[in-house]
Design goal:
single chain; alpha/beta; 7-stranded mixed sheet; 23% helix; binds NADP nicotinamide-adenine-dinucleotide phosphate
Length: 319
């Protein structure tokens, strides 16, 4: 049988769990469909579960480990009465209220939840190169976030993969810490904007390896070097870097919402007036609707906004 809920929150990163804390404290009795541990890179708690130490989340003078921070968020939401369902949403129907949600752990074909309102906080994932040991070494030399991890690479020699604005921006940021930054790009022409290219070419700490990809990662417990293979000649070069930043793009986790809600051309949910989507009663927060800032603190901030927006919206529709 379907369960009726006032607020269903889909996703349990900083955005979803902050929304849960605020919605629970507002007596909205939210259920958080938190995801399920399906692989190293896909589990409840979102991208911070893949991060080691977080030093820039305000309030933690000495820093905090990503998984511990997310566990604290979750306990805080639980303390105010948020309920958790450790599964994934498999299908949604936003065509009429109550909104229908089906989940992976349900039995039968009826929707698992009938929700008066929805907060989507399913986040985004960094694209990876899909080479051996890449996910295993995340947090141990391999990173997808220079803002998060750059500080740990003071005086190191590091490499950045990608030829877009993100790769060049990350490379520029990383030169504040690293001795050298080598950008490895699979073509001989960058995709990034002219101004970013000019800056990168003018930076004496940045060098380029063209027409190449990273094909091997070395090091037992943390990265000690990489093999770079030229895609034209097949020549292999060993690079003794201790940091590798993969900046080949992000992808929002919005496949299940396609056709139900307005998205931009790459699949980020479009929000207006705070966190409202084009479907009244469906709100979105965090990285699933933000490809600019992508920080835990900005995701948490927009989760708070979503809970306040939903409270106002429910009050308005119930009046
Ligand atoms: P992007 O523009 O899609 O660039 C991704 C880069 O990664 C491309 O150079 C691509 O190579 C390379 N790549 C993709 N898959 C790869 C693989 N499997 N192995 C090796 N290389 C691979 O992504 P982005 O740089 O994250 O930027 C996304 C959007 O945000 C863009 O619109 C960008 O302008 C914007 N952005 C703007 C700023 C800024 O203005 N400050 C900063 C960051 C991002 P190819 O070039 O060969 O396809």
């Amino acid at each position: 049988m379907s369960e009726k809920v006032k607020v269903a929150i889909i996703g349990s990163g900083p955005a979803g769990l902050t929304a849960a804390i605020y919605a629970a404290r507002a007596d909205l009795n939210p259920v958080v469909i938190e995801g399920e541990p399906s692989s190293t890179t896909d589990q409840p708690g979102g991208q911070l579960m893949l991060t080691t130490e977080i030093e820039n989340f305000p309030g933690f003078v000495e820093g905090i480990m990503g998984p511990e921070l997310m566990s604290n968020f979750r306990s805080q939401a639980e303390r105010f009465g948020a309920r958790f369902d450790t599964t994934k949403v498999s299908r949604v129907d936003f065509s009429e209220r109550p909104f229908k949600l089906w989940t992976n752990n349900q039995t039968g074909s009826e929707p698992r939840y009938l929700a008066d309102s929805i907060i989507i906080s399913t986040g985004a994932r960094s694209l990876l190169m899909n080479i051996d040991r890449e996910t295993e070494l995340i947090g141990h030399g391999v990173s997808t976030c220079a803002t998060c991890d750059g500080f740990f690479f003071r005086d190191h020699h590091i490499a950045v993969v990608g030829g877009g604005d993100s790769a060049l921006e990350e490379a520029g940021f990383l030169t504040k810490f690293a001795n050298t930054v080598t950008i490895i790009h699979r073509r001989n022409e960058l995709r990034a904007s002219k101004i970013m290219q000019d800056r990168a070419f003018a930076n004496p700490k940045i060098s380029f390896i063209w027409d190449s990809t990273v094909t091997d990662l070395h090091g037992a417990s943390s990265l000690t070097g990489i093999t770079v293979t030229n895609r034209i000649t097949g020549e292999k070069t060993e690079l003794p870097v201790t940091g590798l930043f993969v900046a080949i793009g992000h992808s929002p986790n919005t496949d299940i919402f396609k056709g139900q809600i307005d998205m931009d051309e790459v699949g980020y949910i479009i929000t207006n007036e705070g966190t409202a989507t084009n479907v009244p009663g469906v709100f979105a927060c965090g990285d699933v609707q933000d490809h600019t800032y992508r920080q835990a603190i900005t995701a948490a901030g927009s989760g708070c906004m979503a809970a306040i927006d939903i409270e106002k919206w429910l009050k308005h529709t119930e009046d």
